[in-house]
Amino acid sequence: MPDRPASGARPVVRRDDGRARVFLARPIPDQLMRRIAEVAHVEVHEGSDPPSARELAVRCRDVDGLLATSADRVDEALLEACPDLAVVSNLAVGYDNVDVPAMTRRGVPVGNTPGVLTEATADLAFALVLVTARRVVEARDAVLAGRWKGWDPGFMLGMELAGSTIGILGAGRIGQAVARRALAFQMGVLAWSRSGATALAPGLEAVERVGFDELFERSDVVSIHVSLAPETVHLVGARELALMKAGALLVNTARGPVVDQAALTDALRSGSLGGAGLDVVEVEPIPLDDPLLGLANCVVLPHVGSATTATRTAMASLAVDNLLAGLRGEVLPACVNPEVYTSAS
Ligand code: DGY
Fold first, then answer.
1. Where are the domains of the chain?
2. 27, 120, 152, 226: which has the fewest C-beta neighbours closer than 10 Å?
């Protein structure tokens, strides 16, 4: 018999032995795997490469729950192939990999992992601010290439953070956590958010809210923290880069497609932009012949913003909470489409 779901959501089909079936698109810590195995049959895609779209469709064919990552496309085609799917738990705060309207139409709740990765991601964003401002990777490369000839007063000069201005594009949780770090480094902090209304947390009274163009015009460093949505694809393009001060820096730890990468490459090549620190790019993993990788003033990291042991464990734990709640037919603790519980499926 199907479990009685929270109103509107699709019911979970129990197997003969009363247990649901779930597929994990990536391994998670053993103790969390055991929590799922207590109530459901679990299959796991082993390895660090994501499953192909075909493998995902085949292995999810008769599952009730899917634990996916931001590298897995969860769309209408997957739903067609997996008619029993009753809950999708995304092991990420971002959910641009999931066609949420399609899930909602079919009564499938989607979970994500907000809050638990804020500090780790803000740490990495600020690390990229420091690395680009002080040319850390270039300096290290100079040592390895034998270009360190002795103490030279003009060698590897960078940007002084104290007294410089950072613009936070997207003043949500992570953006505000970066603002806190910047204030501690005695930077001026400007912020813009899409809603315009996001309240700033106590301690951020010194942050100045500005308009979109003004943020680019006045910042020495722009750090991107907006989520990826149709309205934010190429939000930062040639026009915005041209508004920036000569030699300014751009940091992106949000999603690659928010930045027009061709325009960014041009701005870095011409030197109008001083440097870029990117934890995310338009195509991940970045092809090794991408011109960005040949630019000394660009540092590319492999999407590791939340990659600390503590944070990844906390993310997996919340993702399991979401998954198990969905299997029980309960409202997910962190649900991105709560309307699924009120709309008819
Ligand atoms: C997130 O949680 O959204 C991270 O970027 C991993 O995808």
1. 20-116+309-341, 118-300
2. 152
Q: Is there a shared CATH topology between the 20-116+309-341 domain and the 118-300 domain?
A: yes
d(CA 153, ligand 1 centre) in Å: 41
Q: Which CATH superfamily is domain 20-116+309-341 in?
A: NAD(P)-binding Rossmann-like Domain (3.40.50.720)
Q: How remote is the CA of residue 323 from the centroid of ligand 1, in Å?
A: 17
Shortest-distance Cα residue to atom 3 of ligand 1: 94
φ, ψ dihedrals at 54, nearest 5°? -70, -45
pTM: 0.95
Domain spanning 118-300: CATH superfamily? NAD(P)-binding Rossmann-like Domain (3.40.50.720)
Atom of ligand 1 nearest to the CA of 253: 5
Angle at 255 between CA 49 and CA 45, to 5 degrees: 20
Tens-digit pLDDT profile for residues 269-300: 999 999 999 999 999 999 999 999 999 999 99
Instruction: Compute the distance between CA of residue 342 and CA of residue 334 in angstroms, rounded to an integer.
Output: 16
> Packing angle between helix 136-144 and helix 118-133, nearest 10 degrees?
60
Q: Where are the alpha helices (DSSP H) in the chain?
A: 30-37, 53-59, 76-81, 100-105, 118-133, 136-144, 173-184, 212-218, 238-243, 261-270, 309-328
Residue numbers annotated as active site: 255, 284, 303
160-181 pLDDT, tens digit per residue, is 999 999 999 999 999 999 999 9
